[in-house]
Amino acid sequence: MDEFARAAFREAEAKQILRRRVFLLHLSIYLATNLSLIVIWAVTGAGYPWFVFPILGWGIGLVAHGVVAYLLSDPEEIVLRREQQRLAAEQHDRPSPPA
Amino acid sequence: MTRLFRRGELKAALLDALEVAGPSNGYTIMHTLAEQIGESWRPSPGAVYPALLALEDTGLVYATEHNGSRVYELTATGRQAAFKLHGTLEAVATRARTAPPTPSTLGSVLDEFAAGAEGRQRPLDDDTKQAVGAILDGARNNIERLIGKET
């Protein structure tokens, strides 16, 4: 693998890490906000559980964001992953030098 | 960054660049593209390398190892394809030159300022913090007056 290929793999990795960090930030905001809503609900008499609506509504968006962050890939990333697997297989099949 | 290129145009432009530059490694191909297109496109190996791999897969380009670097060259089919698609790189370059510049917003200017500020992670004592806060308050007032005048 030459330096250009290594730079491409590094870039794809950085992109994936950034995407996952943005999702984790989204998740922490979701948890903090909804926990606050539950606390407000509890201290104001714990009546009708209205907090489930933002939990469910926002939850749909959060799940969609998680799918994009962890399960979907750009076409470029798919090509790079395939190349990485090919290189790993090539390395594995290569006979080790005699001792 | 690849938004400048429409579907399939990056690969066509790479064929064009290989025809112009001859057998070249990834960085040379990327620089040939960047030179033709100009400043509005910031090239990156993350976009160019997968496109070269795809061209290799389809038999339009073949690569050989030379001094630890992969050198890409057009195959006979690749040369035919480059002949058919000739002008793609020029068309993309023309589009890049004539595209209207992205308008600046207060947010984009502030982002640039924040990104360029040195010592962002340096801890500040209370006096310095207050002094920096006062400078920024003054700057905010000036900016608000300036923007208020413009609108």
Please provide a written account of the structure.
The complex is a heterodimer of chains A (99) and B (151). With 99 residues, chain A is mainly α. Helices cover 80% and strands 0% of the residues of chain A. Chain A has 3 helices and no strands. Chain A has helices at residues 3-43, 52-70, 75-93. Chain A is rod-shaped. Chain B is mainly alpha-helical and 151 residues long. Helix content of chain B is 62%, strand content 9%. Chain B has helices spanning 9-21, 26-37, 45-57, 76-84, 88-98, 106-116, 126-150; strands spanning 24-25, 61-66, 69-74. A 3-stranded antiparallel beta sheet of chain B has the order 1-3-2. The radius of gyration of chain B is 23 Å and the shape is elongated. Classes of the chains: A mainly alpha (99), B mainly alpha (151). Chains A and B meet through helix 1 and helix 3 of A and helix 2 and helix 3 of B.
Determine the number of helices of chain A (DSSP H or I, runs of at least 4 residues).
3
Helix content of chain B: 55-70%
State the major sheet of chain B. Answer: 3 strands, antiparallel
Distance between the termini of chain A: 25 Å
Q: Report how far apart the termini of chain B are.
A: 32 Å
What is the string of SSEs of chain A from the N terminus onward? HHH
Low-confidence stretches of chain B: none
Number of strands of chain A: 0
Give descriptors for this structure.
heterodimer; A: mainly alpha; 80% helix; B: mainly alpha
